[in-house]
Amino acid sequence: MPGGLEQDVDEQPAGSGQGGVIFVLENANLETAKVGKNYELLNCDDHANFLRRHGKDPALHRPDICHQALLTILDSPLNKAGKLKALYVHTAKNVLIQINPQVRLPRTFRRFCGLMVQLLQKLSIRATNGPDKLLKVVKGPVTKYFPPDAHRIGFSHSAKTLVAMQEWVQRPELGERPLVFVVGAFAHGKIDDSYVDEYISLSQFPLSAAYALCRITNALEQKWGIV
Ligand SMILES: C[S@@+](CC[C@H](N)C(=O)[O-])C[C@H]1O[C@@H](n2cnc3c(N)ncnc32)[C@H](O)[C@@H]1O
Question: Domains, the chain, ranges and CATH?
Answer without folding.
Answer: 18-223 (3.40.1280.10)
